[in-house]
Write a structure and sequence with these properties.
The chain is α/β, with parallel strands linked by helices. It is built from 24 helices and 15 strands.
Amino acid sequence: MAREISPLQKVRAAYEPKLPKIFKEGNFKPQIGAPAFPKTDKAQIKKLFPKTYGQGEVKFVKGKGEGLTTKPINVAVILSGGQAPGGHNVIVGVFDAIKAANSKSKVYGFKKGPGGAIKNNYMELTKKYVDAYRNTGGFDMIMSGRDKIETPEQLAACKANFEALKLSAVIIIGGDDSNTNAAVLAEYLAAAGSPVKVLGVPKTIDGDMKNEQIETSFGFDTATKTYSELIGNIERDASSAVKYWHFIKLMGRAASHVALECALQTQPNICLISEEVKEKGTTLSEIVDYIADVVCKRAAEGKNYGVVLIPEGLPEFISDIKTTIDEISDILGKDAKELENKSKSERLIYIEKKLKGHSAEVFHSLPENDRLILTTRDNHGNVPLSQVETEKLLMTLVGNKIKDLKAKGKAEGVKFSALGHFFGYEGRCAAPSNFDADYCYSLGYTAAQMARAGLTGYTVNVQNTIMPADKWVAGATPVTMMLNMEQRKGKPTPVIKKALVETKGKPFKFFASQRDKWAIEDCFTYPGSIQYFGPSEVCDLPTKTLILEKKDSGKKQSKK
């Protein structure tokens, strides 16, 4: 029996994503700029990437197809890491562009992420198959995975598999770690004399893969709009029931972009920004005091309800917890062999004995489940912070603080009843907004042109995105230009620098100028569900973050 398709999906399948004008007109060529270099660690990165270091940025400009092959080519795509809305449209954009250049070209998909490339688990993508996934959420077209292609054996296996398929290029769709991995693979293949090129596409709903060239990572728009709808619904419920404080944890492992964008869209009473917490050296007890103070002030106004937004990665930014996590990471890296065959409980005991001073005190103060989580790392060396129930921890600590204040006669009239929520997976596979549908299709289309140009070691980009799509500018950034050296698993490793929330940036400054008012007054806004049909100012609107960041540069670009 065939899978049932919803009425919305049927209509969305017919939606034609918008493209930059230069691609629609069909007369274009790649223009390579002057050599571009990373801002830091130049010598180390050049040593690690001698074949792909110092490449120029790429822009697609008017031309007659110079530098773009029209011969049949084979291209493969890989979805890497966590899901983000719009991934399917990246693949659709690649497919349409490759087939438009030459109908005999082939597009393959490696299944279940980079692991599929290592194991040679692939399928050829056909028009009938691809058409069923146009403008849909999820990564189920070819599925994703979190494997890394890094060992000599894995790299060699990929090279053999790619060459057996006679690939011209492999396009890896992923976040900062995945694009870094793409750079490693590109360098390896270039050094080995392989004809296969490697390109990356910037993906992550966390919004932390962006820089001067990459304005936003795909999926961020849809995910934050999905979460904001839910937050708005809860805000309305809070002001209707007038008896609950809602503590809402939002996805965002390292950066608070999701929390900040959702705050800009919904205007909650409290939104914690991890980067500000780190900058000020704020402790856990100070955060609890701040929330409790707002609770008491609102209670004095007769408002025993409210909404608190909490970034998923907050624990790593709280000064005393961050120090503990760093010390644990050093232990995990240096003592990997000793820990290899130990059970979870044995690992805990071992690490507890190794920790000293205040870090030991902080570690002991946490619930056992949280301690176990802090001693775990994923394939990229990150703490799985989504498993730390920060919202429940803060609810408990704020509740205890209110009890202490009441005992001292300082919280009269305060009724504190809290509910916890975590919005994460709800946004990862949502049907993409018009912005993400268009943006992702354009990214895929750009990646295909880079493959036709025979370029390698790049992450594609689309700029000027607060303007209508026909004014968007397509190009690519050398991955080595975005790299820096960081400590991973106890050793210096080249990685793309994560873009954290800038406390001096326009989005945060606007938020900071309003939050005291939002804390006490009911300034809730209700974004509602994502709109796909209707006026452009409703359906195609980018995030408030992007508008605040790029509104001046967008005007300058349009004048050019």
